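Predict structure. Chain length: 340.
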Amino acid sequence: MTGTETTGNFGHAPGILISMTPLWRFWAPRRFQLWLAAALTINTIAFIAARGAFRPEVKWGLACDVAFTVPLLYFLLVARGQPKARFTLVPMCLVALLRASYVAPGMGWTRPVIGAAAEIAIVSLVLVRVRRGRRAGGQDGDVLERLRAACLEVVRIPVAANVLATELAFFWYGLCSWRAKPHAPAGARVFPVYERSSAGLFFAAAAGMGVVEALVAHAIVMRWSQAAAWVLSGLSIYGTVWLIALSRSFWLRPCYLQNGELVLRNGLLWSLRVPLHQIASMSPARGERADLSMPPATDGNLRLEFSSPVTVRKLYGFEWRVRSVAVSVDDPEALLQCFR
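Prediction complete.
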């Protein structure tokens, strides 16, 4: 075989590879959708059968499909060849086992153990991804944004990832942020919102009142039902952590200006990013009504009008489009100077 013949036989190989690349890009993002459709179908059939008058052998077979077939399909369609998705196999298998316990007869006693293991695995993987992302980034990023990115890698369902990230963020700000410092990217112009506002103090006072109320309610309800008293106390503790997290978030998440983009962060309640060229006007607030205001329980001292609607990201990933925002920053003149 001559050199000319070799070129002739394989000369079109690059063209074949180029033509296959768009096909792979078209197929790769749809593998997860295909797996999700298959998982929903298997789970739906299994739970319908679990409620019907089927023989135990049938229910056990469907439980095996839920416990083993769904994770196997996840590996074949999603995790195989994807290093970032492989570490999600452990929580996926635990969740599948938990779902199967609702189908298999007499396996209800395993749910608390499997459920706790699944929650621990998912939270642990999220924390590992956050830690790795922090090391790779070389600097501390916004906790909420890091949690969102890590949860999306682990859960891979945007709605569930946003819910999990929000809950973890509240626990971090409420319980683990006592040594943290306000976050803003390196080189950004920071505009705090906590000194002039009474929002942080308001939520801190509400948290303190919640603790007192929980103790009184627990003592009263205990006379009738111990279980109800402890459930009520648990909900009160959960609400107190939320209030503490909100109180601290106004200090730890200031607004900032960087690279021609203004980032407004209303604690953990919502945030938005807007380029300066999209701000139609910025002027001292004179009581005009705006689509949003920040922080809570504070009169705004600046009013921003946008040339086109801006997306606001709220709790749990909900989004809203606004045309105007009233803000109360500690140094409004400095922000006005940046806009002029």
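Summary: The first strand starts at residue 189 and ends at 191.
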